[in-house]
Amino acid sequence: MQEKYNMTGMSCAACSSRVEKAVSALPGMKECSVNLLKNSMVVQYDEKTLTGTDIIQAVEKAGYGASLLTGGQKKATNVSTEQSVSANAAKKEYETMKRRVIWSFVFTVPLFYISMGKMLGWPLPGYFWGMENSMIYAFTQFLLLIPVVFINSKYFRVGFKTLLHRSPNMDSLIALGSGASLVYGVYALYKIAYGFGHGNVDLVHQFSHDLYFEGAGTILTLITLGKFLEARAKGKTSDAINKLLNLAPKTATILRNGVESIIPIEEVEKDDILIVKAGESIPVDGILTDGTASIDESAITGESIPVDKQAGDKVIGATVNKSGYFQMQATKVGEETALAQIIRLVDEATSSKAPIAKLADKVAGVFVPIVIVIAIISAVVWMICGATFEFALTIAVSVLVVSCPCALGLATPTAIMVGTGRGAAGGILIKSAEALETAHCVQTVVMDKTGTITRGEPVVTDLVCEPDIPKTRLLQIAASLEKLSEHPLGRAIVAEAEKQKISYLPVHNFRQIPGQGIRGMIEDIEYLAGNQKMMDAFNIHGTALEQLQDRMASEGKTPLYFAGAGKLIGIIAVADVVKPTSRQAVKELQDMGIEVVMLTGDHKKTAEAIRRQVGVDRVIAEVLPEDKEQEIRRLQKSGKKTAMVGDGINDAPALARADVGIAIGAGTDVAMESADIVLMKNDLLDVAGAIELSKATIRNIKENLFWAFFYNIIGIPVAAGCYYAAFGLKMNPMIAALAMSFSSVFVVSNALRLRFFKPKHGTATTPADIGSASESVVVTHTTIAEHVSREEASSLDDCCQNKMNQTQGGTTMKKELSVEGMMCPNCVKHVTNALNAIEGAADVTVSLEAKTATLSVPETVTDEMLKAAVTEEGYKVTGIQTLA
Question: Which residue in 141, 369, 449, 789 is a FRET match for 189, CA 20 to 30 A apart?
Fold first, then answer.
């Protein structure tokens, strides 16, 4: 059985580790995952031997709190309720920490000013100066400290509780450090009062300088500030899922007994007939039963170009009907829809992502007990040696104060804060300390294609005209027709015409042909605009068409055909072009020793074309959102730290699953909320910059921790009086506090060096060899004859290359394949192209009537390779024989 729990009382990685250890030790517990960022725990256990009550009791015994959030399989109606509960808890924690940090500063600032003002000669009221006002000076500080201690009493409750459970954490360090200062300050108050009562001026003078109330208050306030920033990061996690939930429409138009009515989305059931109009979101997954539409599926598939749908085609919930009117039959509702699956994947990924344990938390379990033991032993030894109780107490408090975890507690958060601030100044928004820490060890960067490597919107790339048709005439006719269609590809043509300031022509008898294109009369001539299906339907054929279509498809372009008076007049290619710096960004990541993988829902040919342009190490095409998330899982299971770069809703599960999720700033809100890092300048070069910044920050953190411990290693023996007998060297609590403060200043100063960080790989340039990646897309103008000549030249080169391979050595064999499934000339073309793509293949001949394919191949090409090439195109090879 699987259950999810809300957790309370956790403050650091040591807390989550202790809870996980305590719960995992229960009999019947199969798996336990505690998420510090979300304050949640997901468990899988045998319900025959274990109950939810046992789990909660184990958590409480460890010193924390737990409450059941969900159990078993979630129902479709309670998904939003569950996420709402999580969001409200995160928001409540954020508001609580906000109030705590504000009020802490309200009292700490005057406390610090009064304390340091007298030492440094700052302006203060007269009643704080002079020996006679020492009690006013001391007691005012005490009164200012009381609210700070009360506001942050949680550190003392949790810190001392974890000490009692023998699992000290950062709260324990905070409680001991500030508590020691507070106790000694109260002791000093009594000594001042005693001195006044007995006329001992020296005693008053001594202890009026031995007040450490400002130290206690400063420690509590600075740590609370860090906790406040952490709470703000936690609140962002639930925002991502809430925005996913808001993608689907809240209502649906249903058709029952011939009557249209609008109902809540929760009331839609399987097999209901729904109506979707232009501009509306599709409510659930289903099958289109009547009508046609152009649907933007980028939210799910990542494909930027809308897909034409007609009766029998599947439609996906949360996608948008760009144009058209249709009826659909609901096939998947509630938790079964594609969007609900994406939400589930995001939630599971964020729940199971373990936070990185802070180095300070790892050593806390050893450091704190050692310090306590040293303080106690030091006091006892000095009392045995004949020292007064006051001397022994001073020694013990000095040890605790000098080893106060201020520097240790600041070592990591100050470096993180400066590092994230430096990143923000450079347009790299880092949303959590965990992300900044993890990014330094990334070995593989996985990138989405659409909107990440490419622009994410179609533009015109090629204008191919018949010799007697000027390019402006073709564009004018095309734009005049497409202006009436409102098809996304048509809008790209219209945009190109407006860019070139071309006027429109009047169109009469305009009609749309579902799944094919449009037609209309211009100047008494009927013009056609559409895909190859339309050309075939109107019997407009030619070798040039097929060659051009294959060439453009291999380049990742979509050709649109235009015909007039029964003959082809030109072709306009539209494509989603590569961003200017994508190639450079990929190269720089590879120079850093990082593998770059491209994941896309696009076709293999389009993906391969983009791969050639930007140079990624490998590409995985035609993948759905869950496939992207699975690929991230596979990389992580192989032991690689993985970063995912994306911009779409469909990337959200992979962004959440990755060790570091990186979102493009121009992408969707959901992608940015699911990610750990957001690139506000939309520049892939910032991926390398973010990784470099992470490495610099981690190096800084390690330096800070070294110096924090170095001061303790030097200071603790002195505070314990180890050198007092021999050299008279003793550290009173005031000097101990000064040393502790100096160590903190040193750590903070070292962290501030990160402000001058400049990434080596952070400058956006546009190399001359980027070509189509140029920010200003250059549209190629040629004639169809020129394109055909290029194809023939390319074919001739291939033929020559094959013959060269033969003459250089190696035997060629002639093979005949029996192929089933070919139904038309297009099938012949697909099989021919597949066989021609085999290295060394020549003389490929495919017969539709005989259902055979013959070709010559080198002896290195096996029958399995031939069979695989044809099978990949969707046809079946029933036999292969070698001809004489």
Answer: 369
